[in-house]
Amino acid sequence: MIIAFHGDADGICSAALLAIWAREKGKKIKLISPRSVTLPEIRATEVYVLDIGKKAEIRARKVVWIDHHEPFEPEPGWDYINPRVWGRNRPTSLLVHEKFGGPSWIAYIGAVSDAYRPSIKVEYPPALLRGLIPILNASRAYGKQVKAVKLLMKNDPKFIIDRELVSVYNRVEEEVMEILKNPPKKMGPFVLLEFESEHYISNYVAGKLKRIYGGIGVAANRYKGTYEVEMRTDLGVDLRELVKPWGGGHEKAAGATIPEESWREFLNRLKNFGNSFKG
Question: What residues pair up with 220 in beta bridges, in sequence order?
């Protein structure tokens, strides 16, 4: 059984809840998480995809896809669960918790990390659980999200305060602060900062840009022939339209992996949007 999941806190918590259920059922589990929002082709008997909004090539007898990003048309036979199909939105960790059960505190962390206020009861102080979100989110930067899932599966928040994961979080914070010393380019409502890093930190940089400058924070990491783009805003605009067809996400938080040959097209899209923006 393969569990493919998005590497943010919601995806990590979703994977942990499903993995706990699968372990109780005696299933053998393989965890995979892409660096960005694009899954590689998967061939297996049973595949579960969690919190990933971009459709992928999957060849399996059973496919269960649980997500809350913009819906797509699933392949025949897939079990596709997405509340946006019915005009609603709930984080993937809550959807997995409702379907497969598991520790409520893990579902709580995932939901809160996606700016959602869950009504579930938890057995640990909410402030403690919220404090674990940055550590889980940072794990993706160094490819440690699978380890984060396995630590959550131990069913005790103390295991998340792991020496390696805390070290990763500190290194991410240091690198992001160093990158932010460079002045961004302002394009209408957009605040764009291009940089180069071996680590997936565009999400962190975009969030910082939004908080420091306002408007729409756009972080673009040049990595192996692509730009790893993340966008964040509190303005009333839909960022998903700006990253199609390279990625997706939510209205206020979207990401994409854009080939170098398409970069100028993306910049022109931002320019045209900025010229018509009335904020």
Answer: 194, 229
How many other C-beta atoms can be found within 10 angstroms of the C-beta atom of residue 76? 5
Q: 230 near 255, Cβ under 8 Å? A: yes
In the DSSP assignment, the letter for residue 77 is T
Is omega for the bond preceding 245 within 30 degrees of 0, making it cis?
yes
Q: Which residues contact 261 (CB under 8 A, 6 or more apart)?
A: none
Quick check: helix, strand or coil at residue 168?
Answer: helix
Q: Is 152 helix (H, G, I), strand (E, B) or coil?
A: helix
In a 13 Å sphere around the CA of 158, the CA atoms on its Cβ side amount to 0
Question: Per-residue pLDDT tens for 139-160?
Answer: 999 999 999 999 999 999 999 9
CA 19 – CA 93 distance, rounded (Å): 12
CA distance 197 to 188: 26
pLDDT in tens, 233-271: 999 899 999 999 898 888 999 999 999 999 999 999 999
CA distance 50 to 42: 14
Burial of 205 (0-12, 13-18, 19+ CB in 10 A): buried
* CA 209 to mean position of chain CA atoms: 18
